[in-house]
Specification:
The complex is a heterodimer. Chain A is mainly alpha-helical. Chain A has helices at 4-41, 50-90, 96-134, 137-143, 148-186, 191-201, 204-230, 236-265. Chain A is 87% helix and 0% strand. The termini of chain A are far apart. In chain B, helix 3 (95-106) packs parallel to helix 5 and helix 4 (111-124) packs across helix 5 (140-151). Classes of the chains: A mainly alpha, B alpha/beta. The A-B interface holds A 131, 135-137, 139-140, 142-147 and B 45, 48, 50, 70, 73-75, 77-78, 80-82, 84-91, 101-102, 105-106, 160.
């Protein structure tokens, strides 16, 4: 049996650990904010990094196209199936078009798009920067009078920020088209009702909200993934750990930020 | 050329460098030697201003590198080149683009001139004709030669070498040593070499600095080091496992640890 003193000391230890964890997390958030702010400041300084931003957007954006298309298509298809099943119980299958469109534009496009971007591009950003750290490439850039903040971090943050809304737009279009195919062609919802309801219920604000979410998510993914790579411990395990952390932390942050943003837009 | 004044660097409670005062003369090969953990790589990184000292100062041509603005440091870096231990070639670029990289970044030369210059540098390191290979396709020795070519692409005044011969076969190591000699003797550049390779180090050095536990224990020409009667120097150049530099790095007495006594610090 544990006596009271032992119980108390365990409690103190547990609280101490919790406190340390909180402090370390706050410190990391601060460090990441400073790192990205310092890097983003180079956007306004010479030499202009436009070429590298475009190169990164190409690498991240075009590289993620296929996975976005596949995810978008199947999301639209499964939404149509599930929506039809639920709506049919109330005899309101005609609402299928608007239901699917609102879910995809406002919620699933940005969130699933961001999660796919993390898996496809975010992890590779962290691994790439981490390996540049391990193999002294970041130091080599320094020695060649090239600032790694401006050359390595800035273009990647801007690229994810700008690429995600574009990728999400493609996700949306493919998702809606796929839901039309399943809803109208396979399940037999009236084509006019499907499209008419969609046009009637979806307002431009829904689209803008989706884009704004995508913009914020893209920025967050860029900041977290570049930070994790840049501050990775310069060992093999360090980079592996950083890559895992980058995926976990950015996925969870996306879901939390999604709730916060949605609560503002509703 | 480069001078340090009471240079110290601490990592937490560990002292990597302690009150180091050295002077690197122009057009000479200065070799910094010492065992692992003696602080030699830290010293090189401080000299190249990749890190900041805890206290003390570093002067590059009488200009202090401590508290220097980034802009000015980047101007001075045009006069510095560095060959890293693992070559640190940019993975995504071919051999040609790696060597051309500093030229493209810092000059407005047109492609024809850059191509000529890169060909000359690659010829100098014996790798002309390998322009299109990627860093991942190169052997360690070849990668180091490309890194060498990149470091001298801008014709710097000082070139830093971090363990230039480690991990290379004897022939590649000899080639690199020769290239460093040529660089100082023929091209009149200043080279600063960090190495634990005693023979290569003493062969290329005009001036040797021997570090032990973050302190300079001996300084002088290669012959002075070879003929030194300091027991620590002798142990290092002859590579004896035990001596004044102890084999065991443990700080507590072995007997105490075996008896599970709380450690008493062993006297060195």
């Amino acid at each position: 049996m544990m006596n009271t003193v032992e119980k108390q000391s365990m409690m103190v230890q547990w609280l101490g650990g919790l406190g340390r964890w909180c402090l370390q997390s706050i410190e990391k958030i601060g460090d990441a904010s400073v790192l990205s702010a310092v890097s983003l400041a180079y956007f306004f300084k010479r030499p202009w990094q436009g070429k590298h931003i475009v190169l990164q957007m190409y690498a991240l954006g075009v590289g993620s196209l296929i996975i976005m298309a596949i995810t978008g298509a199947f999301t639209g298809m499964v939404l149509a199936l599930q929506g039809y099943y639920t709506l049919a119980k109330f005899g309101s299958e005609s609402l299928l078009g608007s239901g699917v469109a609102l879910s995809i534009l406002r919620e699933l496009g940005p969130v699933l798009g961001a999660l796919m971007l993390i898996g496809r591009a975010g992890s590779s950003i962290t691994a790439e920067i981490g390996i540049m750290r391990v193999t002294e490439q970041l130091d080599a850039l320094q020695m060649m009078a090239i600032n790694p903040h401006a050359r390595v971090i800035l273009p990647r943050i801007i690229a994810t920020t700008l690429a995600l809304p574009l990728l999400v737009s493609i996700f949306d279009v493919i998702g809606l088209a796929a839901s039309y195919v399943v809803g109208v062609e396979l399940l037999g919802v009236n084509s006019g009702a499907f499209l008419g309801e969609m046009v009637a219920k979806v307002i431009p604000m829904d689209l803008y909200a989706g884009w704004l979410k995508a913009l914020c998510f893209g920025f967050l993914v860029g900041v977290i993934c570049t930070y994790m790579g840049y501050r990775a411990e310069p060992t093999t395990e360090g980079v592996a750990h950083a890559t895992t952390q980058a995926v976990v932390v950015s996925s969870v942050s996306i879901l939390i930020l999604d709730y916060v943003l949605t609560s503002f837009f509703l | 050329m480069i001078r340090t004044q009471h240079l110290s660097r601490k990592f937490g409670t560990m002292t990597a460098l302690d009150d180091v005062n050295i002077h690197v003369k122009p057009h000479e090969a200065t070799v910094i030697m010492g065992g692992s953990g003696s602080g030699k790589t830290t010293l090189l990184r401080l000299l190249a201003s990749l890190e900041c000292p805890t206290s003390g100062n570093i002067y590059f041509s009488d200009e202090s590198l401590v508290g220097i603005t980034q802009k000015r440091l980047y101007e001075l870096r045009a006069k510095m080149g560095m060959v890293f231990q693992y070559s640190a070639l940019l993975n995504s670029l071919s051999v040609f683009e790696n060597v051309a990289f500093p030229l493209r970044e810092h000059t407005d030369l047109d492609d024809f001139i850059i191509q000529t210059m890169v060909t000359m540098k690659l010829e100098q390191v014996g790798l002309r004709g390998f322009e299109h290979m990627m860093p991942s396709q190169l052997s360690g020795g070849m990668a180091k030669r490309v890194a060498f070519a990149r470091a001298i692409a801008m014709d710097p005044e000082v070139v830093f070498f971090d363990e230039p011969t480690s991990g290379l076969d004897p022939i590649s190591a000899g080639v690199i040593s020769n290239m460093i000699l040529d660089l100082t003797k023929k091209a009149k550049m200043t080279s600063i070499v960090v190495t634990h390779d005693v023979h290569a180090g003493l062969d290329i050095a005009d001036h040797v600095i021997l570090l032990w536990q973050g302190k300079v224990i001996m300084e002088g020409t290669s012959d002075m080091i070879r003929n030194s009667d300091d027991a620590r120097v002798l142990q290092f150049i002859e590579g004896r496992p035990d001596g004044p530099i102890p084999f065991s790095r443990s700080e507590t007495a072995f007997v105490d640890d075996l008896m599970h006594k709380p450690g008493t610090v062993r006297m060195a």
